[in-house]
Each structure stands twice: as C-alpha cells, then as structure tokens.
Design a protein that fits this description.
The protein is an alpha+beta fold. The chain contains five helices and ten strands; from the N terminus they run ββαβββααααβββββ. It has two domains: 120 residues, Metalloproteases ("zincins"), catalytic domain (Zincin-like); 34 residues, no CATH class.
Length: 175
C-alpha cells in the first residue's frame, strides 16, 4: 500500500525516508499531507471508522481514546511540525495504544507489551517525543522556565510550579 509523500508500508510497518529529505512542505499542503498520512495509516490497520479530532493542547502531541474510537492531534504542534519521522512515530504510537487495548482488553500504557507492538509497527517505542523545538515555533507561549531535564513553555506566568520529572522549582520568565 502506498502512502503520500515518501513514506510507505513494508511488511506491515510504516517506513519513512532515512535520507536528508525528512521534511514536509510548509503551508496548508503540509497539514493536508500529514492528515492524509494519518488516515491512510488508520485504513491500513482497519481503523478507517475512527474519528480524528484537533485539540488545542501544546503539551500533548496525540491521544488515543479506546472507548470512543477517537484519536486527538495537537493542532498547534501539527501546524509547526516539519519532521516526517517524528510525525509518523506519533501516529504509530497512538495506533499501537489502540491495537494493544483491543488485543488485551485493558490499557497497557507504555509497558513492554505496548512497546513491542509499537516497534513491530515501525515506531520507536518511546514514551515521549522531544518536541521542545516545536514549542519555540508556537507563538502563544510567552513564558519559559528551565529545569534540569527540559524547557517548559506557558501561555501565562505560573507561580509555585515544579517540573513533573525532576521536581525542580520553576520560575517562568517572559520570552
């Protein structure tokens, strides 16, 4: 089955280019080609009846709702994403959640079963995607805070916050 752009399915795995040309074109065509890739991947795995909705979250790239047969994609991140491998990995990540849920009857979160499924489908099997570079391109984020493990972006200045990962206290400064 052929997919838009240079991504394709091979032996049941979504394959994206491994050369230097790993980007989408900019503009409206880019979003259309990304959504085409998402829907084609859903079709490939027999999930063509699922709903794909845009959310305004910039902290979450994508979400899977098992019982609603729905996938959410972050519109702010989608609009500035230019890395085909990273976008394809997010698609595989979310579809792997759904397929593992259907196979096991329960959410496996990011455990070994889910990781194996994601890798079998051609994904990285990683829980988090580094999208720090994308936050810089989202204009709504006016404040930034640094900790030991990452950069935090926010629309409004927040007081008394800690990083969820390293637990360091955060002080937001205007960008």
């Amino acid at each position: 089955m052929e997919v838009t752009g240079t991504a394709r399915f091979q032996n049941g795995r979504l394959i994206t280019p491994k050369n230097n040309d790993k980007t989408f074109d900019s503009g409206v065509e880019s979003i259309e080609s990304k959504m085409s890739l998402f829907y084609t991947t859903l079709d490939y795995y027999g999930l063509e009846s699922h709903i794909v909705e845009f959310i305004q979250s910039a902290r979450t790239y994508g979400r899977c709702y098992y019982y609603k047969d729905r996938f959410d994609i972050s519109e702010p991140i989608l609009s500035v994403e230019h890395n085909m491998d990273r976008f394809a990995d997010m698609i595989i990540h979310e579809i792997a959640h759904y397929l593992v849920f259907k196979e096991t009857g329960s959410s496996q979160h990011h455990n070994y079963i889910w990781k194996c499924k994601a890798r079998d489908m051609g994904g990285s099997g990683n829980r988090l995607t580094d999208i720090t570079d994308l936050y810089k391109a989202i204009p709504n984020y006016k404040y930034v805070a640094h900790c030991d493990c990452m950069v935090h972006y926010s629309i409004k200045k927040k007081e008394n916050r800690r990083c969820r990962h390293c637990k360091k206290s955060l002080t937001y400064m205007r960008r």
